[in-house]
């Protein structure tokens, strides 16, 4: 049976949800063309039993652990060279990694070392049962078309996938569960880069990618001061502020809040889009939200085609009404 390798995203001692989403997709592909699904974990510490058990129930047949003190924090050269050695040893048909900041950084380097291709930021993956060609779908030409890319002449086939694009397994996977230690050699961790300082940003705050409720603002709010009811509302319901690119470009809010093709892909339980038109590039980042509420003055706005509830009216007025209603509920 051939191998499929998922590269784990670690945040400290925790395995990030994007790893489980890739494992879920790997198991789905494996139903069409059987794979041994391995997950590579690079770290300065061995995973504890709970994390190991979660990776197995999340879909891994094998965990490959590469442990070295230099692999504690992401560092391009040690990560890329260690991963290249793991891939050369395993010879997988497919290598998948999350399109996170680190995944987006090491995967091109890894593809170059392995002399193969890479499809970045995929939004869909499928497989041809007979050839094993991975069908890698991603937006192209400014998000106006979806292109499906194959790499029939090179192996491994490598792709990154945005977090929240796929779902983790709903039922636990029952595999054999094998842990393999991978020996990290001095050549693999040799680097010209020195980490001078590490500054975490937004510590303790939920980013849009992990948020369960997002209230996103767009240009229909007209001016930055009109973001105020969004901030009050998110505070009241423990939500997170999201944004269209136009208001990010207008510097009303930072890029970390941007949802869409050149921002983040999100999958909250509730997404409220206030004064957002529903351009394809925005929709690409939020259409998998479980429940979408759109507020727009124009009843023909494209966003309504994706909304579960549509409110036609002035976004600021409606948001202020909502804040008022919730605040009076809280006071009761
Ligand atoms: C390569 C590329 C990548 C891109 N990536 C992204 C991305 O990641 N994310 C993203 O969002 N965009 C992205 N865009 C930009 C995208 O095409 C749109 O320009 C952008 O999403 C529009 O933002 P908006 O809906 O806030 O503004 P607008 O298009 O200006 O829409 C404003 C909306 O507000 C409504 N409105 C006006 N007044 C009110 C009111 N008083 N009350 C209620 N509604 C009102 C209007 O009817 C309109 O529908 C990208 C574009 C390209 C080419």
Model description:
This protein is α/β, with parallel strands linked by helices. It folds into two domains: 188 residues, Rossmann fold, CATH 3.40.50.620; 124 residues, Rossmann fold (3-Layer(aba) Sandwich), CATH 3.40.50.1220. Helices cover 29% and strands 25% of the residues. It contains nine helices and 17 strands. Strands 7-11-6-1-4-5-12 form a seven-stranded parallel β-sheet, sandwiched between helices. Strands 14-13-15-16-17 form a five-stranded parallel β-sheet. It has a three-stranded antiparallel β-sheet with strand order 8-9-10. Helix 3 crosses helix 4 and helix 6 packs parallel to helix 9. It is globular, with a radius of gyration of 22 Å. 42% of the residues are buried. The structure holds flavin-adenine dinucleotide. Flavin-adenine dinucleotide (FAD) binds next to helix 7, helix 8 and strand 16.
Short recap of the structure:
With 332 residues, the chain is of the alpha/beta class. The chain has nine helices and 17 strands.
| Domain count | 2
CATH architecture of the largest domain: 3-Layer(aba) Sandwich
* Gap between N and C termini: 62 Å
CATH class of the largest domain: Alpha Beta
Give, in spatial order, the strands making up the sheet with the most strands.
7-11-6-1-4-5-12
- CA-based gyration radius: 22 Å
Q: Which topology of the largest domain does CATH recognise?
A: Rossmann fold
> What amount of the residues lies in strands?
25-35%
- Structural class computed from helices and strand pairing: alpha/beta
Fraction in helix:
25-40%
